[in-house]
Structures are given as structure tokens and as C-alpha cells.
Amino acid sequence: MAKNKSLPGKLIIKLGKFVWTTMWQIMMSQLAPRNQKGEYIRPSSQFRNFISSATDNPYQPDANRYRLYVGLGCPWAHRTLVTRALKGLQEAIAVSIVYPSPDAGIWVLSEPEMGCQTVPELYQLSQSNYQGRSTVPILWDSQTNTIVNNESAEIIEMLNSEFNQYAQYADFELYPESLKEKIDQWNEKIYHTVNNGVYRCGFAQTQAAYDQACNELFTTLDEIDGVLKTSRYLCGDHPTLADVRLFTTLFRFDIVYYGLFKCNRRRIQDYDHLGAYLQDLYQLPGVADTCDLESVKRDYYGNLFPLNPGGIIPLGPDITNLLQPHNRDELIANRG
Length: 336
Prior knowledge:
Structural class: alpha+beta
CATH architecture of the largest domain: Up-down Bundle
Helix content: 40-55%
Largest sheet: 6 strands, mixed
CATH class of the largest domain: Mainly Alpha
């Protein structure tokens, strides 16, 4: 009787690596567009209209006319929720929460709206020939049933400036004229090396692309930590849009980017000043209510299959440290 012969272990390993690497590259090409160097290239947003009171603008500021579509795990969408909370626009601008479909790779509405069950259907409703990505956040005009804007950086500018007559905290200015140049400089650096930098680490498809992105990420974080030694916020004593844009990445950093995206040179809470700065922002009125730890973990660990094939969602971390005293306000007192 012939003995069953199995493949040698070395061959099984080589075959398994080949199959998985090939599949991984195919899946990553769909999840994260890359250049020839293996660097992640984020596609540009396509809807770039503005809400303003200019007489010739079809999108006029108004209460209960516009709606935000957001995913709670998404840092770009999270920016809009933070700005909405800081300005006190909860009564003027409604929010619809969408959820990622792990199998279809799209955002799904919690319940049908305007005959749409998915975010791609919303995009088609707004523009029937739309062929691009269907992302969040979306700033939606319920009067014309169109997408006004799907670029988070521009949406938060509009929320800050164009709805003050309806805002509970109209005087909470996040983009003051005197600081615009400084805010813009921070935003440019932080977007490339931090906001998108963590994705450039996690979605890198070559070692060289990862090394470059990781080095740039922590060079900027180190620089920011040094600035925060003497400045409560990035641009002085008051939070600005630069802080809002940085916050949503920092909130997710120790939770998912540190491990899942291989940004593991240092945790935010291990920094001398960035950790307390994160606590400071988290404790601003209304901000903690926009932060959903479980959604963040579920959306990243449960839906990014090429990065976490097993789909196992970690039990931690414990973020109660974000509620501890930060003493950042003493920077102003000491300087005075």
C-alpha cells in the first residue's frame, strides 16, 4: 500500500507566500492606488462647490438645508463632526451616519434616504454620470439633492464661517484672518506627513515607500511636540482648524495606526507634550461626543482585509486617560 506523500514544508511555504503576495497586491491596488515606487497616492475629491451668501451662489447658508454624511471611523469625516460641535451647529446641520460594508467595500446608509441605500447611490443621485470614488464626508444640499462638497478640508472651513447666524458659538473662530497663513502652513505639512502620512505607512507596497513615509511622519510629530512645549495649541492660545485636522488623526493613532499601519516608533501618549495636547482637545466641549472608539476599531480592523485578514478586532486600548487632567491651560497662565 502506497504511503501518502505531502508537499515538502519549504515548498508549501514558498507557494503560500507567492499566492498570498499576489492576492495582496491585487487587493491593495483596489484599496490604495500606488505609483511605481509603491507609494500610496490619495485620489483628489471631485465635488468642490462652496456655501456662501454671494448673490450668484446657488448654495446659500441656511439652517436645516444641508446634511453631513459621515462614517464614525473615518478621520476625514470626523473633522466635520468636531467643527460642527465646536461651533454649536447641531441644530442647524443634520447628520446621517453611514457604515462600511466589509464585503462590498462601500459605505452603506443605516436606513434608506431619497431612495438610496448606499453612498455610491447618493453620488449617482447627485450626478448620474459620476464615475469616481464614493467617499465621506459629504456635504449634501437637500434643496437641490446634490453634493455640495466632499473635501473635508473645505467643508470645515464652511462650517466655521458660513453658518454663524445659526451657530451656538459663533464667536468661536477657528480660522482667524490674522492666523490664516500660519494655519495653512501647518495644514499643508500635517496633511502630507501625518493625516495622509499614516496611510502612506499603512498602504505602502514597498519597504522604501514605507521607510520614507514613516520617517516623515515621526519627524513632523517630533517637531509638533517641540512646538507644544511652549504653545498650548499649534497656532497659539486658542484652537484652530489646524488643531481640528490634526486631532482626528491623533485620536486614532494609538488605537489603530500604531499597530495596524506600522506607525510604531512611538505612541502619542509617550510624547512629552502631544499626549496632553490630545487630552486637551478631547476635553473641549462637545468633542468627546464625536469620538467613537468601537467604530474606529471595527472600521479599520474589521474592514481593511489586506491589512488584517483574520478580521480580529483588539479589545483595547483603554482611552480613559484622555479624560485625565492635562494642565495645558497653565501654559497661558505661566506666560502671563
